[in-house]
Amino acid sequence: MARTYASDAAPYDVVVIGGGPGGYIAAIKAGQLGLKTVCIEKRGALGGTCLNVGCIPSKSLLNNSHKYHDVQHDLKKRGIDVEGVKLNLDVMLKAKDKAVTGLTKGVEMLLKKNKVDYIKGMASFAGPNKLDVQLLDGGETQVEGKNIVIATGSEVSPFPGIEIDEKQIVSSTGALSLPEVPKKFVVIGGGVIGLELGSVWRRLGAEVTVVEFNDAIGGPGVDADIAKLMKRTMEKLGIKFMLGTKVASVEKSADQVKIKAEDVKSGKEVDIDANVVLMSIGRRPNTSGLNLEAVGIEMDKRGRVVVDDEYNTSCKGVRAIGDVTFGPMLAHKAEEEGVAIAEFIKTGHGHVNYDAIPAVIYTYPEVAWVGKSETALKDEGVQYKTGTFPFMANSRAKTNEETEGLVKFIVEKETDKVLGVQIIGPNAGEMIAEATLALEYGASAEDIARTCHAHPTLSEAFKEAALASYDKPLNF
Length: 476
Known about the structure:
The chain is 32% helix and 25% strand. It has helices at residues 21-32, 48-53, 55-73, 89-113, 172-175, 192-203, 224-237, 331-347, 374-380, 395-400, 428-440, 445-449, 459-470; strands spanning 12-17, 37-41, 117-127, 130-135, 140-150, 154-156, 169-170, 184-188, 207-211, 240-242, 245-252, 257-263, 269-274, 276-279, 283-285, 318-320, 359-361, 366-371, 384-390, 406-412, 418-425. A 5-stranded mixed β-barrel has the order 1-2-3-4-5. Helix 3 packs parallel to helix 6 (192-203). It is globular, with a radius of gyration of 24 Å.
């Protein structure tokens, strides 16, 4: 049960609105720094979109659907004969829910451990340093804070004229809990979320089609050559792509959804049938109900809270971090800002290196990147070199029979300083950490190539790609 607080209680040093990755980390760090802190969360469970209906449940389904697909299609060639394989979707969904519950309860324990108060309720501004809170278990209270941090995250971007019912037309939330495998599953939007959830349901037996307005999948951070390779690998899984296609309307009947679309270049109309449609065209900042206008907090045309380089809003004493403001909508980016904002409040100093924020698409093979892409460097007029190394030439990948993909280095032409790394392949999401560390410390490609990597490991491909960017690889 949520605790209530009298309006005449001593003000908190820090009040955090939102218990997602940015919010709860900000609250924990503030508590560790000795600041009297409270976290207010309206969901009734900590962890935000990431833990409850995003990163964590989707990774559970991605992992378990991959195992199911492997048993059906991969184990026989490895000398493992399995008969009578069946999907128990109910148990798979329960495993997902168990992971979510365990982690959200763990966050609540971390708040207690660091002496952070926790209020379950919806907060809205009553003044620059004052919040009205509608408690989830009934009643209301008022909370005062010397510093207020807005960390309310993001929500699914709506598609004009299309209503999401979470049954036939679903958001990512509904796509995580479908009661049965749909025969035809159409994804509108070829970004990270659409590709991951499309992979899940394809592995479980659905016919999956991805409809994307642009001519490439993955989003703007992915290099063009990596995006093409990713598309080819997903087509091998059986996913169909309709790129350069604009959706005009989505209409549902008793057991079917009809999509009317058109080719962007030719204008040719296309009809697509589905049982379930996933609307995955992006996310937008979640500021509804906060009453930001009461304290004059400025927002831009895209609904993002405007902040300076110390996360201050236009209202003194109020700051904002995470998806609700600028930058990539990533849980780990919000976490870094959560630490920084607590340090700013306590010491006046904090820092996040936005040039070293990795991103991962958890398809199979995984796609990961950090730093600048070739497209960005061309636009900036930076002179650069590239080096690649395929997993087909890596001994561990060959042994594992997982040779799809490559590692690509982008380095400054004159100095060999690492500017960006892109990986498509097994365990790319783990391997990208080495690239992120290299960017954080300003390493050159030669620094990495001269660092001993264990043999046989997938990470040797990382070393070889670094070597290829300034000299020649040794094993290809």
